[in-house]
Records
---
Amino acid sequence: MALKEKVLAYLEANRGASVSGEELAVLFGVSRTAVWKAISALKAEGHLIDAGTNRGYTLALNSDVLTHSGILSYLSSPQDTYCIEVHQTIGSTNQYAKELAAKGAPHGTVIVAASQTQGRGRLGRCFTSPPGGIYFSFLLRPALTAEKGLCFTTAACVGVCNAIEQTTGIIPAIKWVNDIYVNDKKVCGILTEAATNFETGTLEYVIVGIGVNFATPSAYFEGELAEIATSLYPDEPAPFSRNQIAAALIENVGKALQQPESPHIMAAYKQKSFLPGRMVQVCSTSISTDAGRTALVNSIDDAGRLLVTYQDDGSTAALSSGEVRLRLTASKKK
Ligand code: BTN
């Protein structure tokens, strides 16, 4: 860990308290000038550090900037596991990751942003990405064929749930196929995109894009959106920094994406899924006005398909992710 990351980690552990340059210099075996340079670099990144003469350094209680050094300071895996780039604002982390992939960026590249101006969702929709959220994309170069694509979304869902649970204590649930819910409202969406080599049928690269509504104020969720979306900490300050949850997300999602086809991943996905037992409206993705058919969700099979029974004629179907939009109906199966 570079000195800057070590200093930030120490200041975060002593948030609000003054830490002297001498203490930091002794702790990390460097000169006070080196400490001062590290502090200057952290301030340039936007961290609110008070550094008055003879008063030491104090990280403000409300300092919560998503930064490269901040995320690194919370990663427990070796630094070179991921190649992380952090932006305060970007068009779309998925789009940017695609551009990097085309230029040969390596497996394990992670693009993180504090806001997006052109966030993309599934089925060509926009994904509103205001400050307060955490938006990131993993670039992977797996040795798998194209039809395995769904397993990356499945693995990412499990990784996001584990990270949220580990960091916040909140137990989220998966809404098939790519959404994470808390209290029946969406807090995270996942968009997996890929490029295929047509000759070999293998995946050239996969981009797994994840948007987490972390501390997005509830005012951002207005009208219809307020009924279906929320954030983890909409109205009260989160009890930890966004760098901490970003690091947990990267590590947990990264771990799940290492073995996306593992039966453990599918087992965890099923265990965390809340649709089985519920009624849904199954609508066509191509007809936006389609009111859909009411169906009872029976289960999710090992291929990740949703097994349903239509209520109008009792017929059953195995739904694949690309074919349907789902609307939850209020009632749960008794
Ligand atoms: C959905 O809910 O439809 C999927 C939303 C996926 C949003 C994430 S945010 C990070 C990454 N960059 C994007 O432009 N989209 C994904």
---
Amino acid sequence: MGERDAFLLDRPLKAAVIGVGYLGRFHAQKYAQMDGVELVGVADLVPARARQVGKELGVSVFGDFSELLSLVDLVSVVTPSATHFSVAKACLLAGVHVLVEKPMTILLEEADVLVALAGQQQRILQVGHIKRFHPAVMRLERSGLLDRPRYIESQRWAPFKNRALDVDVVLDLMIHDVDLILHFVGSPVVDVDAMGTKVVTDHIDIASARLRFQNGCIAQVSASRMARESTRRMRIFQPNALIEIDFMQSFLRIVQRGSGEMVLDGIPVPAIEETRLPIERHDALEVEIQAFCQAVRGNTPPVVSGQDGRDALAVVTMIRQGIAAFLEHTV
Ligand code: NAD
């Protein structure tokens, strides 16, 4: 522990948010409301944006984030994805704990540097894979029902929006499901077959990939930002159950073999038991930020570590390379 850490247990954690656009403003609101945390300030390259959020929450405003690093214990980095590496690196070098939004970086080598730096500096590096904190996902984990998934399919389809158009749909949306699936399967990806195409932007707008894991599990993931309506769903097939997670309706449906038989059209068939687990709704961003603060305070590993973010990025990089090869060979 460094000098700055000696006080962590008996004073509020000092926090700041770097980048207060669409999502960063919500990060700042959560810190401002949280017990045991003092939001010291917000930073944004666009002065009007920083002023607006600073005024809303009654905190100091910075144009250059490097000016606030000596004042805080931790930061959220919520700047555009291409800047995550340089901003998060500067924060870690200054001895500040970092919650960096997803994707943690664009390049795998950059993610490696951040993971190593967090280790050297003994600082928490958490990555904003917020779906780990989705009420249905947390409920599934608590249920203990997840048991050796053999096949997983996920769909994350969104209508077109004027956001995150600086990256492709794989880095922006598919990475959420890749992180979850890696977490659920707990085995490395050994093979990727991917396809995708640009539709309206200069980047891939729809994509589909088949992932094969070392333990034999297969996952089929698809993501689109060209959908008419939002669909965010995952189905997990395992030897004893089918588990369905609907991220939008926030429900968990479990289908399992029941005891005995039931009769369908006059014919006896194995009984099927369908359960909808009750989901207590919560604010996933608030729970994510609370978990980050707990990791900082307790000096414990974060729920979504830098290594987890790096692993998701590695698979996403394979998918993006697969799509590039697919496009090259498609006439
Ligand atoms: P945004 O463009 O609305 O906001 C980014 C802000 O960062 C802007 O205000 C910009 O001026 C500021 N900025 C840029 N460079 C800066 C710098 N060097 N210092 C300070 N401020 C700087 O973007 P957004 O939609 O809020 O997305 C931000 C990040 O959050 C992206 O990486 C995105 O992938 C991620 N995100 C994650 C989720 C999620 O579900 N976890 C959802 C939305 C966005």
